[in-house]
Design a protein that fits this description.
alpha+beta; 21% strand; 30% helix; 9 helices; HIT family, subunit A; single chain; 10-stranded antiparallel beta sheet; disordered N terminus
């Protein structure tokens, strides 16, 4: 039985080799099968999260170490939720996935072996058309050093107002918010301007802190595939090599 479990673990992790990009070619349900088939049952029966880093049954999410990069983690719902286009993420009783993902950022610092300030840590979700998995997942990792610098001027912006910004050569907009829950949930903020599943399917969202700590709030960064010079993935704003931890 132990050998079987080891083989299952090796296979499950193998499909993650190369990160989410390789998952598309293997199995778009791989993340869901790992969380729902291994992590949740193990947490329920043994109190241990199996191959996941954490399973919170009450808050309905799991945290999984992505095999791409040393510091990248994924927050994955334990409910079946396809992605950014799902109406479930906008329901009044939907879990605060962004809050839970932000609260999980300490795993990145622990892997980096240095306490990273909040403006060097980021969260990201891809559009429907720039992801490989059919289960919602929020990337948690270090931020590219040049992106930290590019976003610094926005740390004192008036709350809840969009401003244009070019990042990594592509068109985004940025908003400072006081928190990540309720009406400031990044999904809800973006959905106000892009109602409906079809519109939301085009969106990508990136979240980071405004400074050393989040006392001055967070920055929500948004782009989309269906705008000129826009993007359906903000993942390039993250640094899966976490260079910033090595060089400060």
């Amino acid at each position: 039985m132990l050998d079987f479990l080891r083989k299952t673990l090796v296979f499950s992790l193998a499909v993650l080799v190369g990160g989410c990009a390789s998952l598309a070619a293997s199995n778009p349900d791989a993340l869901w099968e790992i969380v729902n088939g291994q992590c949740v049952p193990s947490e329920q029966t043994t109190g241990k999260p199996s191959v996941c880093t954490k399973v919170d049954l009450a808050k309905r999410y799991a945290v999984l170490k992505d095999i791409q990069g040393n510091t990248q983690f994924l927050l994955i719902p334990t409910d079946r939720v396809t992605g950014i286009e799902s109406p479930l993420i906008l329901k009044p009783d939907a879990p605060d996935y962004w809050v839970d993902a932000w609260d999980s950022r300490h795993y990145v610092s622990e892997r980096a072996k240095v306490q990273l300030p909040d403006n060097q840590l980021g969260l990201e979700i891809n559009s429907k058309f720039r992801r490989s998995q059919s289960q919602l997942h929020i990337h948690i990792d270090c931020v590219q050093p040049d992106i930290v610098a590019a976003l610094a001027p926005y740390r004192d912006d008036v709350l809840n107002q969009w401003r244009p910004v070019t990042l990594d050569g592509q068109r985004y907009r940025v908003m400072r918010v006081a928190d990540l829950s309720g009406e400031n949930n990044p999904f809800r903020i973006v959905a106000r301007d892009h109602p409906g599943s079809d519109e939301m399917a085009e969106q990508t969202i990136f979240v980071t802190g405004t400074g050393q700590t989040n006392k001055d709030g967070w920055l929500i960064v948004n782009s989309a595939l269906n705008i000129e010079d826009g993007s359906g993935t903000a993942e390039p704003l993250l640094d899966h090599q976490c260079v910033i931890a090595k060089h400060g």
